[in-house]
Amino acid sequence: MLDLRGRPVLVVGGGGETEAKVRGLLEVGAAVTLISPHPHPGLEPLLEESGVLRFRWLRREYRWGDLEGYQLCIAHPRERWLHPLIAQEARERGVWLNAVDDPVHCDFILPAVHRQGDLIMAVSTSGVAPALGVRIRQELARRYGPEYKEYLQLLRSFRSIVHRTYPHDFQARRAAWYRMVDSPALELVARGDTERARAVLLEALHCTGPREVPR
């Protein structure tokens, strides 16, 4: 759940997960530097788009000192014997390190993540069985589909409305939000009836009684 927008992140790559790690970091807006002498065909098209360099790629092996200036590093070199060396430099420089498939040298673990817009659901098995985390994420993806993305966009538009309605009463605002998320609005969004969902949310904002799902 880190906000990595614009933050410098180093990827020491080469392994099979390099492309996925770089893509994931770019999706959340990180300022990525990749160190890898190996070909990564899936990354070549991403390197530059519309004349803009999306990330920096140093096509060489890792060298001591490469972590200077970074706050976070993901290490996935083909040469796993590099992990202890990278970890030592990370400790000395205070850099958070994720060494892929090597929990002993990790400061943090990357969970399996399911996203639907502003909804982010992360599953971790604490490094014991990442495949199980992936399977659980797949179950969550089936349960929490695209309607949640649209639903959260709708709820976002209500944030200022709720605050204006109850400007000085936190408890009233909290109660209003629970009435709104407990309303049938999500079911209406799933049916494609966003306008009726908006009306239901407005009603829930002002009243305390339960409401049946409109038919």
Keywords for this entry:
single chain; Double Stranded RNA Binding Domain; Rossmann fold; alpha/beta; 215 residues; five-stranded parallel β-sheet; 9 strands; two-stranded antiparallel sheet; 9 helices; 16% strand
Provide the spatial order of strands within the biggest beta sheet: 5-2-1-6-7
Tell me the overall shape.
elongated
Total domain count: 3
What proportion of the residues form beta strands (DSSP E)? Answer: 15-25%
Taken in chain order, the helices and strands follow as EHEHEEEEHEEEHHHHHH
The main sheet comes to: 5 strands, parallel
Rg, alpha carbons:
22 Å
> CATH first level of the largest domain: which class?
Alpha Beta
Distance between the termini: 38 Å
Helix content: 40-55%
SS field, number of helical segments = 9
The low-confidence parts are 210-215
Q: Strand pairing plus helix content: what structural class?
A: alpha/beta
Mean of pLDDT: 92
CATH architecture of the largest domain, by name, is 3-Layer(aba) Sandwich
* CATH H-tier superfamily of the largest domain: NAD(P)-binding Rossmann-like Domain
List how many beta strands DSSP finds: 9
Q: Can you tell me the CATH topology of the largest domain? A: Rossmann fold
Organism: Thermus tengchongensis
EC number: 1.3.1.76
Catalytic activity: precorrin-2 + NAD(+) = sirohydrochlorin + NADH + 2 H(+)
Domain Sirohaem synthase dimerisation: 152-205
How would you describe this protein?
- Its EC number is 1.3.1.76.
- It is an enzyme of class 1 (oxidoreductase).
- It comes from Thermus tengchongensis.
- The chain has a five-stranded parallel sheet, with helices on both faces. It has a two-stranded antiparallel sheet with strand order 3-4.
- Strand 8 and strand 9 form a beta hairpin.
- The relative contact order is 0.09.
- The two termini are 38 Å apart.
- The longest helix has 14 residues, at 130-143.
- The protein contains nine helices and nine strands.
- It has three domains: 8-109, NAD(P)-binding Rossmann-like Domain (Rossmann fold); 111-144, Double Stranded RNA Binding Domain (2-Layer Sandwich); 148-206.
- The chain is of the alpha/beta class and 215 residues long.
